[in-house]
């Protein structure tokens, strides 16, 4: 038996379990993005009943070392000649964020970059509690710190309004 065959035989159970765990994390990540974009659609219906803002969801290829290549959604909002896109960055980010009431920042469990005209934007982060948060300030996190606030209707409206300025 060769060295690869021996390795696979002895590590088989561990490798199978790791593969299942990674698949579950990827499914959870994609479900959280779907839920986030659905919630945004609900918020848009309440603040844009005339549907002046066009909404599209495109599928793009994402790549992460833990998952390989996979398909993920990107939400794009367009108002006449202005647009904003919600672009998933990765499930596994080397970033930490501090939610209100937390003493120390914790590792995020996914991020979405919100990009608008001129390349400006901000980040949304999913934390261990399963909720989505946004940067407290529309600045580089390294400059203003890593404080985040829960993403809600009011903050979503402010974010989209800023993007359309």
Order of neighbouring strands in the sheet with most strands: 1-2-3-6-7-8-9
The count of strands amounts to 9
- Identify the overall geometry: elongated
What is the number of independent domains? 1
Strand content: 25-35%
What does this structure look like?
This protein has helices spanning 3-47, 141-144, 153-163, and strands at 54-64, 68-79, 82-90, 96-97, 106-107, 111-116, 121-126, 132-135, 148-150. It has 165 residues and is an alpha+beta fold. The protein has one domain. A hairpin with a 4-residue loop joins β6 (111-116) and β7 (121-126). The longest helix is centred in the N-terminal third of the chain and has 45 residues, at 3-47. The protein starts with a helix and ends with a helix. The mean pLDDT is 90.
Topology:
Layout lengths: L2 H45 L6 E11 L3 E12 L2 E9 L5 E2 L8 E2 L3 E6 L4 E6 L5 E4 L5 H4 L3 E3 L2 H11 L2
Antiparallel strand pairs: 1-2, 2-3, 3-6, 4-5, 6-7, 7-8, 8-9
Features:
3 helices, elongated, two-stranded antiparallel sheet, alpha+beta, 36% helix, seven-stranded antiparallel sheet
Q: What's this, in brief?
A:
With 165 residues, this protein is α+β, with helices and mostly antiparallel strands. Helices cover 36% and strands 33% of the residues.
């Amino acid at each position: 038996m060769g060295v690869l065959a021996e390795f696979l035989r002895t590590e088989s159970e561990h490798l199978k379990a790791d593969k299942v765990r990674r698949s579950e994390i990827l499914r959870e990540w994609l479900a959280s993005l779907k839920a986030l974009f659905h919630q945004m659609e609900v918020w848009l219906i309440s603040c844009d009943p005339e549907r002046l803002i066009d909404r599209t969801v495109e599928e793009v290829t994402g790549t992460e070392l833990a998952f390989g290549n996979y398909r993920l959604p990107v939400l794009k909002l367009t108002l006449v000649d202005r647009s904003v896109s919600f672009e998933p960055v990765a499930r596994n980010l080397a970033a930490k964020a501090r939610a209100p009431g937390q003493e120390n920042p914790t590792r995020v469990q996914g991020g979405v970059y919100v990009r608008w005209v001129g390349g400006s934007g901000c980040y949304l982060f999913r934390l261990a509690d399963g909720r989505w948060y946004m940067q407290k300030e529309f600045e580089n996190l390294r400059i203003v710190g890593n404080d985040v606030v829960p993403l809600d209707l009011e903050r979503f409206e402010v974010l989209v309004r800023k993007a359309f300025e």
